[in-house]
Q: What sequence folds into this?
């Protein structure tokens, strides 16, 4: 009798406190850590445990236990496979693999939804084409008759096809395109085994930074908008909308932190991924190569539509995916509202991540950003900013004379506004100012129109 009373008492306690009956909800997220512009939708959230901060614990989620699972991928295709298999609930990938994700779900009688942009460029920056460092090639036009490798069915593949079409070339006749993953392309470029390689974030900048390639084409030249964003299994989102919103709240928080301290989080990304912090900052710092922009601007909607059409043309899918049904920004709008942000205002804002700084040499506030330059000095936690290249190079000379080591120098392309690795840029110096350019032919055109000499990085350093 005494044993029965104890058993009944124990069972009452379990019911009262929900111990044995607490529901466990899985939140399984697929990331692409080395695709660094996905950081605010994955790596930063995971490393700082931001999702735990926003997951709901009231209403129907009272007493719930969360099983948070993170899995990292190097590309979108295997991530999609695991989402289809029901092993992942949320995933981050680019427009092309994202569209394939939607098509694959639809073909399987299921549905996935594109719920947010994480980072992108309405003009196409982020994708690019590089050649071996020793190659004499300076522009895409010089690759006629050559072989270009690219990860097939990637966002950079779409960029390459558009760039080739703009040249009036026919694939297989005027240029040969072969498939090659970035981990294979790097050694191929080092060994001069490939004429050129097209790739997505961050490889068109990483390979040049590491010294064995030069960037000769930026995706913005093809005017092909590109993005990376987050997708969700639609059934999961319908069942747990509050969890999806919590994930997006965490992403918004991650974005705020990176905006406030880009150097700090560039170092964190480098620590986790092995992608150099100098390259991470190239994207995530102020006036960066891409904009961390969560909203579905018309250009991003068009990018997804273009990727679907291109995938069908490439016979990678035969599914006709309805873009307006595939993109669902309702969860994002709810997350913005909870965070006290104006979604419509952000939707209309096309500005790059702003720079609020003074010239490190003159102390004057920087108000014109067309010719901004930056130097990251070894041992300094913050990047130095300059209103113009001539100010930066004057300071660079003084720093090197004092024996200081330089991590990287950046400059803004005078035509596109894109941030450049100055070591691989071209410069035009006239009696009034210095301007930077990605392409030698653009520097030459500027010099012809405005006067001045065309110089490479070493040349401009000695000229100032």
A:
């Amino acid at each position: 009798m005494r044993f029965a009373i104890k058993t009944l008492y124990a069972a009452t306690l379990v019911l009262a406190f929900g111990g044995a009956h607490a529901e466990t909800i899985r939140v399984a997220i697929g990331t692409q850590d080395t695709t660094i512009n996905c950081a605010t939708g994955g790596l930063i959230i995971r490393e700082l445990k931001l999702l735990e901060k926003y997951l709901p614990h009231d209403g129907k989620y009272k007493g719930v236990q969360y099983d948070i699972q993170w899995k990292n991928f190097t590309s979108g295709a295997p991530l999609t496979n695991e989402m289809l298999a029901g092993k992942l609930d949320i995933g981050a990938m680019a427009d092309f693999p994202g569209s394939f994700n939607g098509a694959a779900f639809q073909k399987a009688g299921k549905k996935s939804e594109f719920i947010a942009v994480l980072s992108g460029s309405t003009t196409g920056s982020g994708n690019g084409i590089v050649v071996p460092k020793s190659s004499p090639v300076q522009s895409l036009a010089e690759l006629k008759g050559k072989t270009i490798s690219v990860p097939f069915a990637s966002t950079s593949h779409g960029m390459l096809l558009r760039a080739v079409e703009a040249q009036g070339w026919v694939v297989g006749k005027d240029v040969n395109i072969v498939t090659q993953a970035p981990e294979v392309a790097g050694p191929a470029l080092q060994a001069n085994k490939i004429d050129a390689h097209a790739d997505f974030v961050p490889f068109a900048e990483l390979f040049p930074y590491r010294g064995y390639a030069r960037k000769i084409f930026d995706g913005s030249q093809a005017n092909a908008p590109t993005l990376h964003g987050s997708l969700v299994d639609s059934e999961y989102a319908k069942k747990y909308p509050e969890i999806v919103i919590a994930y997006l709240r965490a992403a918004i928080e991650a974005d705020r932190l990176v905006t406030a301290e880009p150097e700090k989080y560039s170092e964190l990304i480098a620590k986790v991924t092995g992608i150099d912090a100098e390259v991470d900052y190239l994207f995530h710092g102020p006036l960066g190569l891409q904009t961390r922009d969560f909203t579905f601007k018309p250009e991003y909607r068009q990018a997804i539509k273009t990727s679907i059409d291109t995938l069908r043309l490439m016979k990678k899918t035969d599914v006709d995916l309805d873009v307006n049904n595939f993109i669902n920004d309702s969860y994002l709008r709810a997350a913005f509202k909870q965070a006290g942000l104006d979604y419509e205002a952000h939707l209309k804002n096309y500005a790059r991540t702003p720079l609020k700084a003074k010239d490190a040499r003159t102390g004057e506030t920087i108000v014109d950003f067309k010719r901004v330059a930056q130097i990251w000095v070894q041992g300094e936690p913050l990047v130095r900013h300059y209103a113009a290249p001539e100010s930066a190079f004057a300071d660079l000379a003084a720093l090197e004379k004092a024996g200081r080591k330089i991590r990287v120098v950046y400059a803004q392309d005078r035509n596109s506004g894109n941030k450049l690795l100055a070591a691989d840029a071209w410069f035009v110096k006239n009696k009034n100012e210095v301007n930077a350019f990605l392409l030698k032919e653009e520097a030459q055109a500027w010099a012809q129109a405005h006067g001045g000499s065309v110089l490479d990085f070493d040349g401009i350093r000695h000229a100032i």
Residues 1-20 have pLDDT under 50 and may be disordered.
